[in-house]
Amino acid sequence: MPGFGRKGEAMKITDVQTVLLTGPCTADPFLLEARRRRSVALIEIHTDAGVIGIGESYAGYFCPELVAVAVQYYRPILLGVTFPETDIHTLWRRMYLCENFWGRVGLGPAVLSGIEAALWDLKGKILGLPVYELLGGRHHERLPAYATGGPANWPPERLLQKLDFYLGLGFRAFKVGAGYYDAATGRAVPARSPGAIVELEASKARLMREHVGPDVAILMDGHMGNPLGDAWDVATARAVLRALEPYDLFFFEEPLPYTDPWGYAELRRSTSIPIAGGECLTTLSEFRQYADLDALSIAQPDAAWVGGLLEFVRVARLFDARGRKIATHSWGAGVAQMQNIHAGFASPNTSILELPPAAGPLHTELWGDSLVMRDGYVLPPQAPGLGVRLTDAIKQRYPFVPGSGEFNTVPGKVLED
Question: Could you read off the pLDDT of 161-200 as tens digits, one per residue?
Fold first, then answer.
């Protein structure tokens, strides 16, 4: 393969670079109603043999400029290292110890996720193996995938058109958010009381189940990790879940803010619907509290956010030991998607993978032909490393737009696409 040294040959790391890109968020016409562009933070690790490892930090979706600053902070720790003689966990520990005061959780591990992924990609390319083989081997012949559909579209007939679109793409599972999003106004359709919230979500679940029948998996998301309005309390969330129980949900994600793991535990005990969450959590230590409280039926680590692929697998094993499943969270771009797919195949208790339906070019051009879905299932990637690519043409085609990562409902931080 051009630019590769001999298989298994040790190399020296010569540079660590951040590549920021901005481009279309998605080709999904229903998601485009809410978000039209996205930014991506990619990390390249260069070697003296010309082999380059590529990783992504999901922080690039929110604060790409900060990723570039943090990578420069970590860069001296990697320069001159002989690789893969120095193992990835050792390098990760060196970087993690340097952020002990300012980044034990949050942005520090999120940026390390991209750097660590680039190291795994590099090692896989050197050894000629897919990354999941380096993480302990593959546990699944294939994994089901769901279309991550973002907000529920308004009016309800528009939501049903969305579901038909996802089923037409070959998905047999989909996820939509709480409430409704009205493209005509650019705002959520409000439910102004706890009782109205319960009725809204129950009527939506009933509508969707009647439309798709019993054999399609329905997933719902409260988005209480980043609420569009006031977050639900335990009583509201419990009432919603109780009303949704007749509709056989695969899981309900983020019914509460992550500041209330005790509320999650109370909810999980009070409903037959599997409670999922974890996309905002970083490192094994944050997930351990939820595991110890038995607060999640399905944990959702993100390999581009949690601290890396190895940290993802450690979280999966933590929950597996307690008889609980995981599902990938994956709303990063194409490299982050592949990080999560490899981590999912390397984890024994992965139940389902999150995929962007009708993915945009910052997904498809980065993963190339490595992501294969057939009959609603993702197949194990076969290429060495993560199976991703980052060419000069891609870099030139999607130049970075400063400030494009800002996306929130806080005044002053609302991104106008």
Answer: 999 999 999 999 999 999 998 888 878 887 879 999 999 9
Element containing residue 377 per DSSP (H, E)? strand 377-378
Amino acid at 406: E
Q: Answer whether 408's CB lies under 8 Å from 414's CB.
A: yes
Q: What amino acid occupies position 410?
A: V
pLDDT tens-digit readout, 63-108: 999 999 999 999 999 999 999 999 999 999 999 999 989 999 999 9
Which tokens is 154 given? 């308004």
Cα angle: 32, vertex 36, 37; to 5 degrees: 145
> Is the separation of the CB atoms in 123 and 4 below 8 Å?
no
For residue 221, the surrounding DSSP H or E stretch is strand 217-221
Q: Which of 171, 116, 162, 158 is nearest to 305 (CA)?
A: 116
| CA–CA dist 58, 60 (Å, integer) | 5
Q: Which residues of 216-242 are buried (b: 16+ CB within 10 A; e: fewer)?
A: bbbbbbbbbbebbeebbebebbbbbbe
Domains of the chain, earliest start first: 11-129+392-397 (3.30.390.10), 133-378 (3.20.20.120)
Distance CA 194, CA 13 (A): 56
Chain centroid, CA 150 distance in Å: 13
Are the C-beta atoms of 39 and 25 separated by less than 8 Å?
no
CA distance 288 to 267: 18
Question: pTM above 0.85?
Answer: yes
Handedness of CA 220, 222, 225, 229 (dihedral sign): positive
User: What is residue 274's DSSP assignment?
Assistant: P
The phi, psi pair for 109, rounded to 5°, reads -60, -30
- Given a contact cutoff of 8 angstroms between Cβ atoms, the answer to whether 22 and 39 are in contact is yes
What is the DSSP code string of 181-243? EETTTTEEEP--SHHHHHHHHHHHHHHHHHHH-TTSEEEEE--TTS-SSSPP-HHHHHHHHHH
Q: What are phi and psi of 399, to 5 degrees?
A: -65, 145
Place of tokens 């593959």: 138
